[in-house]
Amino acid sequence: MIKILGINRIILLFLLFSAVSLLLTGCEVIERSGIPPVPSKQAIAVINSASDSGVTGMASFSQIGQTVMLHIEIKNAESGQHAVHIHENGDCSSPDGKSAGGHWNPTNVAHGKWGEGEFHLGDIGNIDVGEDGTGTIELSTDLWEIGTGSMIDVVGKGIIVHADADDFTSQPSGNAGARIGCGVIELVE
Ligand SMILES: [Cu+2]
Ligand SMILES: [Zn+2]
Question: How many A from CA of 29 to the centre of ligand 2?
């Protein structure tokens, strides 16, 4: 009995020592690098002109832990507000962008404004475009995933920029007008 207790103590000490070593090594690595944790997953969509608009841009998604951050920038757009959504198909083959289908709506709810009541998981919002034709929008959420293959995975979906603003009310897509930019969300590996 005493012998067993002794062995147990040795094992316990060993485990404790291992844990402390690991912890110290981990801290050293973080201190040495001094930079925030690298995003575990990334996806991008190159936005190309649709409906002969000349609009181009880029959408980049990065995930740290449960949080996905989205940054979109567009250029060559008319000044004012332009709706931007994630659409259900990662397909920009038709010149008018309609091949991207309707809004990505995996939770099967009404169209709306992000963060208020019901909204599609694709309802990003409106980009403010200045006189120089450029605009950006950012969104941070735990409602999306990157590259998991789950129903809330953004990879393989489309990004659509519209000619008009989203009114956040009209069904099923906010009365945002023609599709002037289109991109396919692809996993960065
Ligand atoms: Cu749209
Ligand atoms: Zn919508």
Answer: 43
